[in-house]
Specification:
This protein has 24 helices and 22 strands. By secondary structure, the chain is α/β, with parallel strands linked by helices. It has three domains: about 1-215, Rossmann fold (3-Layer(aba) Sandwich); about 230-390, TPP-binding domain (Rossmann fold, 3-Layer(aba) Sandwich), CATH 3.40.50.1220; about 405-590, Thiamin diphosphate (ThDP)-binding fold, Pyr/PP domains (Rossmann fold). Strands 15, 16, 17, 18, 19, 20, 21 and 22 form an eight-stranded mixed β-sheet that branches. Helix 4 links the parallel strand 2 (about 50-55) and strand 3 (about 75-80). Helix 5 (about 85-95) packs parallel to helix 6. It is globular and about 70 Å long. The chain starts with a helix and ends with a helix.
């Protein structure tokens, strides 16, 4: 049977799709296939050529097929040491490089780990396949690692809560499963993960005479946009008669062309505010860019949201921290909302909804608007003054001298100053910046000043600790990688430290900047802001992270000093290492105002809930 499998793999490699291979006479149309091979063949037929995960007793047959197809050069298989890490690396591969991967696991805990990690793909609109081993269909007795209850398809129930799922209880249903899969992971109106459960006893079952032309290829649907001329006219009229206009863009519009966005802002006479995970879509150097807005926004970004009278929302879900739980726009009289999802279009009242792809809708709306103001408007000048205030505020913190830290008993760089040095270095060498959850991420998206998209990745959808250090692994899985730098805290790094081993295994060249304040600073500061006390969010354990990194052969570990000059010198040395390097950067935490960048909005959390909810109802959006 392996001879026939090898022949099919060779043909698929040569002809790319099953249809072209059959039409060329390289493959007979009807073939005897095991369920595992049908899944791998079907995914490769859709262009899924990277598989990431951990094998177990629930996926041994799948592993044998992956072995054969990798040997023939059709696919690549990357083993890692944790399923959450696999999920993060897969999400980064889709997000950064545009490749659709598949995550594979065994039955039970491994699948649950990967499903938890899939929150990143789900929250950020990333199409990733998940292949989970599952219990046998004969129910002859409890399978080890299944959920120990006398019910059918309990893992299907779990994954179905997360999104579209399918159990291959019947091998011939593979065609339908893969149709459902591509309509989910390749949906131009909003990608999402797809969960395919593979019962252990069904994986090796051979089905006679499967029709290769029945395997679906990758979904190819052109983007769609609102076609109602009257809706565009009403939206344009609202823009023409309003002076204080703010455009805020979310992660759903990350594929919007910068020139299209600029043309619309020109025509509308608006200012721009971005969400935390898409810096660079509008150049940071443009005076109309008010930078990030929200609960951890900026002086200028939150001012532009608070004072605007017309808000244009593009590709956003209205997440609590994105719009301060609905309280960030107290003076807005009307909203123009552009989105592919009906549910997101109705997020706010007083909305003119333009359903469709952001690129197509904004082009059309710009054409209807026509020529915009010839010079800077009074609104744009006022907002630019706030941007100048924000830049001066940041500059003071970037140039701050080391501050005495009680935990480390020495003077250390404030975290904003240290992150700024790391960002400047990354930009100078053309590296990709990936931020982990927590205080490092929050400071990071306040500091980043990208001139183009795709230079910074902030996983703010699920805010999953450990994402950045796992995401760098994606750059070991592509032919022409960009040098990645993960910006992480000590807490986030320890969520997925096994990346040190996997980076060495797969030949990753990149860097981890580990900012260590021996605490979960984002939560410490939140506790102090709400209750004037920190509780159980810090530790007193000394960890030599450089030595920890050096314990893995091929990984270089460095510890930065406490001055800007010493940190810059260490970054240069770490960059020259041919593999993965880790730079340990102890940073200050304390009461000194220069130690952070602050927050400029509240949201529904802790003791703020009552006031925030009351304000939301008062505004009535």
């Amino acid at each position: 049977m392996n001879k026939e499998r090898t022949a099919r793999a060779k043909a698929l490699k040569q002809y790319t799709t099953l249809r072209t291979a059959v039409e060329a006479g390289a493959l007979d149309q009807f073939q005897d296939l095991s369920t595992s091979e049908a899944v791998v063949l079907g995914l490769a037929n859709q262009g899924v050529r990277t598989f990431i995960g951990i094998f177990g007793h629930g996926s041994t047959d799948l592993g044998e097929i992956l072995r054969i197809y990798e040997e023939e050069g059709v696919i690549r298989v990357f083993q890692v040491r944790h399923e959450v890490e696999a999920s993060h690396a897969a999400a980064a591969l889709k997000w950064q490089y545009g490749q659709t991967p598949a995550v594979f696991t065994s039955i039970g805990p491994g699948a649950l780990h990967a499903m938890a990690g899939s929150l990143v793909s789900l929250s950020n609109g990333l199409g990733v396949y998940y292949l989970f081993g599952d219990e046998t269909t004969h129910n002859e007795g409890p399978n080890m690692q299944q959920i120990p209850r006398r019910e059918q398809e309990l893992y299907l129930k779990l994954t179905s809560v997360m999104g579209t799922s399918y159990t291959l209880h019947t091998p011939e249903a593979v065609f339908t499963a893969l149709k459902w899969g591509t309509s989910r992971v390749h949906n131009p109106a909003g990608e999402a993960p797809f969960y395919l459960l593979l019962p252990m006893n069904i994986q090796p079952v051979v089905t006679r005479g499967m029709n290769l032309l029945e395997f679906p290829e990758r979904l190819q649907v052109p983007p769609q946009a609102c076609a109602d001329e009257e809706t565009y006219r009403r939206a344009a009229e609202l823009i023409r008669k309003t002076e204080k206009i703010t455009v805020k863009v979310g992660g759903g519009a990350r594929n919007l062309k910068p020139d299209t966005l600029k043309a619309f802002i020109d025509a509308a006479g608006a200012v721009y505010v971005h969400g935390p995970n898409i810096p660079g879509l509008f150049p940071a150097s443009d005076r109309r860019n008010m930078t990030v807005g929200g609960s951890k926004g900026s002086i200028s970004g939150n001012f532009a949201m608070a004072e605007s009278e017309l808000l244009v929302v593009v590709g956003a879900r209205g997440v609590c921290q994105w719009d301060s739980s609905g309280t960030a726009f107290p003076r807005v009289k009307h909203i123009i909302n552009i989105n592919t999802h009906i549910g997101d279009l109705e997020q706010y009242n007083r909305t003119t909804a333009l359903l469709g792809d952001a690129e197509l809708v904004l082009r059309k709306l710009t054409a209807v608007l026509g020529k915009g103001p010839d010079k800077e408007t009074a609104w744009q000048r006022l907002c630019a003054q706030k941007r100048d205030q924000w830049e001066a505020y940041k500059a003071k913190r970037f140039s701050a001298a080391p501050l005495k830290d009680s935990k480390f008993s020495q003077a250390l760089l404030p975290q904003p100053a240290a992150i700024k040095i790391g960002i400047d270095f990354a930009d100078a060498v053309g590296a990709i910046k990936i931020f982990d959850a927590g205080d490092v991420q929050a400071n990071g998206f306040q500091i980043v000043t990208d001139e183009m998209p795709g230079r910074t990745f902030n996983e703010t959808g699920a805010s999953y600790m450990g994402f950045a250090v796992s995401a760098v692994l994606a750059s070991a899985m592509v032919e022409n990688p960009r040098y990645p730098i993960a910006f992480t805290g000590d807490g986030s790094f320890m969520m997925n430290p096994q990346v040190l081993i996997d980076a060495a295994q797969h030949g990753l060249k990149g860097m981890i900047l580990l900012f260590d304040n021996r605490r979960m600073a984002a939560i410490s500061s939140l506790q102090e802001a709400q209750y004037n006390e920190e509780f159980r969010t810090d530790d007193s354990v000394t960890v030599d992270y450089a030595r920890l990194a050096e314990a893995v052969e091929g990984i270089a570990g460095f510890t930065a000093g406490s001055t800007p000059e010493s940190l810059k010198d260490i970054l240069e040395k770490a960059y020259k290492h041919p593999g993965l390097s880790l730079v340990h950067i102890p940073v200050y935490y304390g009461e000194d105002d220069l130690g952070g960048l602050g927050a400029y909005g509240k949201w529904n959390v802790g003791s703020w809930c009552a006031d925030v909810q009351a304000e939301k109802h008062r505004i009535g959006l």
